[in-house]
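S.,

Sequence below, as promised.
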Amino acid sequence: MDQSVTQLIDSDKRFWIFHKALGAADEIVEKGNDKSRNVREQLRALCAIASAQALVGDIDAAMRTAELIHDASDRDPALRTIAECQAKTANFNTSISTARRIHYTAQRVAALTAIADAQRIGGDLVGARITINEALHAIKPRKVLWLFKITAIPDAMDRGHAKRYIAAAQAKIGDIPGALRTAQEIDYPTERALALSAVAETRTKGGDQIAAKSTFADAVRAISDIETGTAKINALCGIAEAQVTAGDRDAGIETASSALASARVITDVTYRSWALRDLALLWVKLEHITNAIATAKEINQPGDRVLPLLALAAAQTASNPAAATTSLIEAFNTARKIDNPHFKAEALAAVARAQTMACSLGVASTTIAEALSTAEGIQEPLDRAFALPAVVVMCCTGKRWFRSV
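The prediction came back faster than expected:
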């Protein structure tokens, strides 16, 4: 965590924010007469809080919160996040133990492959291979009464997620044949495309340019028959980013342009806004500032325009400080226009982080105070229990934070 950011939300302040979030979670069970629904909502809130605590480094607190969740389906995402964060500190034995407590196979595989990647980065290739093999074993169909098999992950998309994570992990440790086998087994086209692009990226880094180009082409073909939608656009964005990371910027720009054309024909306003947000962020990563600015202007929902504007501000800082300041001010003004108080608070936290990075700590302190005030003022306890941790995570990490799989 950047030292300047800790001045905005230090450990004491984080403690009290999470304390308030836990208090909001307690309030949930007291409202209305539908006790069963209230309990389910409380468990979701506790999972979100535990995940947030782990992401900002409060691992022990995260585990204590996770232990309050008695339902495995609600506890699993928190345990996955905790395991991944433990692995980032090279605490591999503990992280694997945490991952093995995860009930749902797709979540457990995601955690195991993240751990394997951390082991690889730490130089433990043997450990990484063992962990990947455990993930592979987890997704194998199980025999029942020696008569028939049941799949370990019934949902096709979740199964695709899990196999994509495994394929990427296999490729990174040099098992290209295994990675290709795993990728080709994926039924869900967008997940197969992302798995293949991960393999292609690794092939490029290994110096096999011809094979990499062929695998990238396979990735694009995997989604060629899918109608335009956010899933296809997300896959194209992933492929484009992998192509640029692999050193083929021209191919990445061509793929991103294809994604942009698909995004523009989406009729649903919300989905189109999401797609354009992701594309604007992608253009910044591709260092294509002109396209990033143009795409950001097409986003008609304030909540989706803030992060691209902040990414632009960061990218423009060195080459065009005046433009960076303009983008940062526009992001702040845009965040304040967001109607939903949760998203408004999270957006303001993102702005505060950017202001801190731009050495405007005094202004950032005012902005984070507004973000917290917005979150604390939410009347609905479930929304407040989600918003308060969201502010902390966005400010401390710069990332949107909660996920299901």
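The mean pLDDT is 90.

Coffee later?
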